[in-house]
């Protein structure tokens, strides 16, 4: 599948709103425009003032449009993992004609059947991911189209979130004059960007350190298995600096960015800089080490809370370790501090693209990569969320035309239909050569879906 075309990623963060425009050609993603605007109307990663947030989104989009020389009409938006629930879902349908091959419409129908869940009124489905299809008892099928069968099943993973958060995000984007191509849960998108195939398979932890909150996401067997959100982030560090040094929030933020260290042992007591103190006519000299001690104290508190929750599910035993993302991850020395506190290998992911070499751009870039990598079957399943088949590959790929005509929308080429065959797997057969240690790692998170 060649998902060539233009993708626009939107990251609505507590501190800043970022828009990235990328062009994908023959598997290569090239960033052609970037917009960044100071956030307004957000608190702890959640939109609390729709009008103010919409205005900030518009400003960031205009910046990206000017640099990319295109008109942006659709965006792929990342949403925080606040109160996200992960559960199994399954659906089954009878194929209308047993002599007919399974087609796009059948995939959409079985996905819709899997979405029939008993759900509280305050929650809404965020996303659904197909894990496998089963045709007449033959399991492990990734794409059932072209096969012949009388019973089609889909086993998948369902993500639900608070209706208020989802509604406010949609409303703000629509008020900014944009359409939503896809809503993606941030840790799920980040896994496609910051982890390699082995790290996603055997298990890793992504800790997204934003301005308003810190989110830990556990990825195992290429799936998002667990999320934890701590309502403390980079803004709390800034507040600590402001209170301790008796300076304004603006000055505290500048001090953190220009002189801050996450690990006080790496800061120098000899390096000093002036700080404008409220009520004093002359600046006070503060050492780099003293500032680092303030920053480290808050980071210790954040990491300690995250570690407690990760220890409960033994996630820190996963071989992939921890990958830090988000703006706070740019603080010098944070890798050593986190590695010491968590007791595992830690690294910071920084995009390699020119103009984006800062961890704060990770999420906006991640939602683009996530959407671009979706298969035709995954897009068909997701279309069942809205019932909108016009944008699905059921029409676009069959006719060989672009998915949408507007300038900033993705285009895709038709792919030939290949008839597939599958063999049933014995229910109790097990590979005797499989190592027991790998089995234990693979089974770490099975109890989440029991």
TrEMBL record:
Give start-end positions of Polar residues composition bias. Answer: 404-419
The membrane topology of this protein is: Peripheral membrane protein
Q: Where is this region: Disordered?
A: 400-440
Q: Does the keyword Cell division apply?
A: yes
Question: Domain of life here?
Answer: Bacteria
Which residues does the UniProt record annotate as the domain SHS2? 7-194
Main localization of the protein described in the UniProt heading: membrane
Q: Which GO terms describe its biological process?
A: cell division
Q: Tell me which UniProt keywords the record has, alphabetically.
A: Cell cycle, Cell division, Cell membrane, Membrane
- Keyword Cell cycle, does the record have it? yes
Please give the InterPro entries that the UniProt record associates with this protein: ATPase_NBD, Cell_div_FtsA, FtsA/MreB, FtsA_C, SHS2_FtsA
Protein location: Cell membrane
The record lists the membrane-crossing segments as none
What NCBIfam families would the database entry show?
ftsA
What is the role of the protein in this entry? Cell division protein that is involved in the assembly of the Z ring. May serve as a membrane anchor for the Z ring.
Its assembly, as annotated, is: Self-interacts. Interacts with FtsZ.
Family membership noted in the UniProt record: Belongs to the FtsA/MreB family.
Name of this chain's protein: Cell division protein FtsA
Q: Which organism is it from?
A: Lactiplantibacillus brownii
- Which gene is transcribed and translated to give this protein? ftsA
